[in-house]
Amino acid sequence: MNSTERRALLGLASLYVFRMLGLFMVLPVLSVYGADYRGSTPALLGLALGAYGLSQALLQIPLGTLSDRIGRKPVIFMGLAIFALGSVVAALTDSVYGLIAGRVLQGCGAIAAATMALMADLTRDEKRGLAMAAIGAAIGVAFMLAVILGPALAGAGGLAAIFWVTAALALLGALLVWRLVPTPKVSPRTGVQRGDFRRLLQSGTTWRLVGGVFFSHLLLTALFVPLPLEIVDRLDLPSADHWKLYGPLMAGTFLLMLPLMRAVERSGRVPQALLLGMLGLGIGSAALLLPWGSGTALVALLAVFFIIFNLLEALLPAQLTRTAPAQSRGAATGLYATLQFLGAFFGGSLGGYLFGLGGAPAVAALGGAVACLWLLLWLLTSERKPGAAG
Description:
Helix content is 82%, strand content 0%.
């Protein structure tokens, strides 16, 4: 990478770490500490946890498109300010409804599309897969740190402590973008042509890529409904120590994924890798949750799952930003981010519902169903005439 690409990657990867760290720290503690809030019920706490993802999904396309018009950085600064404000609201409240409002407001700072588009603006095509992989790794780092820091902060100062730290991290992220990340030389558009987004929606290539991120995040979120219990049962590892498994596993699989990603991109067989990757992810998640496996088999299958998932996390956005027209790249990444958050939302909902019906084997069946749906989507879009984004 050249100096511009390195500065962009360092600044934006750090932004992802700071922003996602604040979000992930809530996950292992909200249901415990949220019970002390006025008016708290399990259903309302579940809403507080999921409200962020829903508002994120609703605003990714509008804010991604806005970044095409006025520039990436103004949208990122605005989104971080809203995210920090939502964190302050959540930190100051003692009511579950105030907590929900704060989480919704956090989600309104939906900058994933603009950030991804800025990364694409500042990297060459041949380096974009590596950049997207590094951002995926940054999110993994944030998850690992959050599992350790979240309970410690909550133990010291409750959920309020986490939200205050989250607000500070958002402001630090804005400072990094301002001082470190270069500004693209491409001038923002004064207006978005009406046909741009319609052409994106008519492209079979677009639907394969955004469908891929929807299914992959649906599977990931659904998997983590029964997986912690499976780890406790099969590995005899207490939940408080699960980070000892996730940390090395995610770091190791990321390092193994990098040469695979480079080989795929150099061979020019990205579409074939996407097809096989999604089929492998669906079938692998099903095999992972079937009750016949030992603890060693579980770890091995989980490693394969993370290798494929990390590969898709790198290839999907890189391919989308290559095929989408530069003038509507923000809209394309907005659609991508919307399907990403919706996949997580539906994955958690379906995973919880199926787990309640039939335990881990029922969630395993979801993996097989997703593999079939992905193959069907691939076949349906193969004959579609390519649009401007295809």
